[in-house]
Amino acid sequence: MNTTDNLPPAISEIIEHDEVPEGRVIQGHDMTFHGPVYGELVSSGGTVGFENTLGWGKVINPMGRVHGRKRAFHATVQAPGGVIELATAESCLIIGREVTVREAIKCQIFAHTLHIGTAAGCMIAGRNVHIRHARDHKSEPNMITMVVPDMPDLTEVLAPLNAEIAGLSPRVEALTARIGAFKADAALTQYLAIRAKVRVGMLELSGDKAEGYAQMAERLEETAKALESAVAERRPLAEALAAATRQVNDLRQEQTARLDDCRCKIDTVGGETIVRQLLEAHDDPDLSLIPLPMIPKILFRNDASLKFLYAVHAGKVDWRVA
Known about the structure:
By secondary structure, the protein is an alpha/beta fold. Helix content is 32%, strand content 40%.
């Protein structure tokens, strides 16, 4: 019969020194286990650390951290949106946003960002994968699936924005050229500077100076109004042009950023290793937050939707999405 340890709200940390037997479920936030763990640990997003082995057990810690100093075998470690650090894992299912494993043997690993020292006969799916050494295990290859976000075609979205930009650009350019021509007139520039000071009370004119200013105004005021009209006409057009241009750039940059961390790097390949690409319509920037039922479908997928990138026995791999 399963037993469950439910923590009262006042307790924020558990430290266990005894073995956690199979069938026992411990719930908490921050938890540390010094004895072997064979049961189930459920955290509410804190830190779960086990100093001893984790065997045939399960750790569930969404958005939290899991740290294992020794061996995990035939275990499940789920920290979607969280961080997992394990020393040695064998025949484990591991799910996390950022996963680091010193040595992984025959594991199934689903991670947004994955760092592995040695991977042997593992089935891996991720967005950003770095493996120092990859080798097979008893003739079982490493199977790595790079899950690349399927970017929507922006043609229809960008078409009205590009049409708006195409219509606005020549109008803004023409007004800018007209304004530039006005401002090239030294006499007009001088008149506008004096007029501005007179209007705000910074300059008082009398006698010959007042008469000279009046003559300048008679000669240049219409031109000044034409300049002001051009500036006023250009302002909303330039703002609309900038807004449309910004939308186009933001959409393109968003796609570029989403693809920027799609990379598989293997420093040394010393056994059969297969790398594939799968386009997946997943909008969340954290791949590990894909609904749990979809994960085995991706890990074990083997159909025409997969694009084979590499099948190597020796050498290295350094791939980025095109």
